[in-house]
Amino acid sequence: MLETIEKLLILQDRDRKIRRVQGELAHVEPQRQMFKAKGADVQGRLEAAKLRVKQLESERKRLELDVEAKKQQIERYANQQLQTRKNEEYRALSHEIETCKAEITKIEDREIELMEQGEAAQKEVVQLSREAEETRKLIDDQVGKLGEREANLRKELAELESNRAELADAVDAAVRSRYERLVKSKGENVVVGVQHGVCGGCHMKLPAQVLVTCQQEQEIVSCTNCGRILYYTRDMSLVAAD
C-alpha cells in the first residue's frame, strides 16, 4: 500500500471519530432540553391544578357569602311581615322569602358540586405533586448523566483533535486538498478499498485498467464514477462477484 494511502486512511479514521463525537455532542443539548421540557410540563400541570383548587375554594366562599346575604334578606322580609297589616304586602313578602329560600337551595346545591370538584382537584394536586417529585428526581439524574457524558465527549474530542493537524500535515498537500474536497462532497467515506472489482464507495464496477493500476500501488487512483480515492490490499479480491 502506498505510504500516502496509509496516511490518508489514518487521517480518515481520525476524522470519522471526530465527526462521531461531534454528532453525539450535538445531541446532548436537545436531550437536556427535552428532559427540562418534560419537567416543565409536569410542573405546569401541577400549578394549573393548584390554581383550580384555589378558584373552586374562592367560588365556594363567594357562594357562602351569597347564602348569608339571602338569609339576611329573609330576616328583613320576615321583620317587615311583622310590621305590616296589609294582607297584600304580607303575601308579597312571603313570596320574596320563598324566592330567597329557593335561591339558597340552588346555591347550596352548587356549593355541593364545588366541594366535590374541589375534592377531585385536591386529589389531582396530590397525584401531580407526587408525579412532579418523581419526575424531578428522574430529570436531575438524567441531566446529571448527560452532563457527565458531555464532559467525557468534550475530553475525547479534544484528544482526537489534539494532533489531527499533525496527521493532516503528514499527507502531501495536493492529495490532502483532494481528500478534503471529497469529504465535503461525499461524506466521511472517501478513501475506499476495491473488492470484487467494484468501488467501495459507490459500488460501481471499475474498469480493468483502474484495477491494475490500483494493484500496482504506484500512484493515487480514483474511481472513474464517483472520484473517491481507491486502495488495494492483498486480502482483497479483484475478481468480480458472480
Walk me through what this model shows:
This protein has two domains: 13-165, Helix Hairpins (Orthogonal Bundle); 172-231, no CATH class. The chain is mainly alpha-helical and 242 residues long. Helix 1 runs antiparallel to helix 2 (87-162). The chain has helices at 3-83, 87-162, 164-169, 173-186, 208-216; strands spanning 191-195, 198-199, 221-222, 229-231. The two termini are 27 Å apart. The chain has five helices and four strands; from the N terminus they run ααααββαββ. The protein has a four-stranded mixed sheet with strand order 2-1-4-3. It is rod-shaped, with a radius of gyration of 41 Å. Strand 1 and strand 2 form a beta hairpin.
Number of strands: 4
Overall morphology: rod-shaped
For the largest beta sheet, what order do the strands appear in spatially?
Answer: 2-1-4-3
- Beta content comes to under 5%
Q: CATH architecture of the largest domain, please?
A: Orthogonal Bundle
The CATH C-level class name of the largest domain:
Mainly Alpha
For the biggest sheet, the summary is:
4 strands, mixed
What's the arrangement of secondary structure elements?
Elements: H1 3-83, H2 87-162, H3 164-169, H4 173-186, E1 191-195, E2 198-199, H5 208-216, E3 221-222, E4 229-231
Parallel strand pairs: 1-4
Antiparallel strand pairs: 1-2, 3-4
Summarize the structure.
This protein is mainly alpha-helical and 242 residues long.
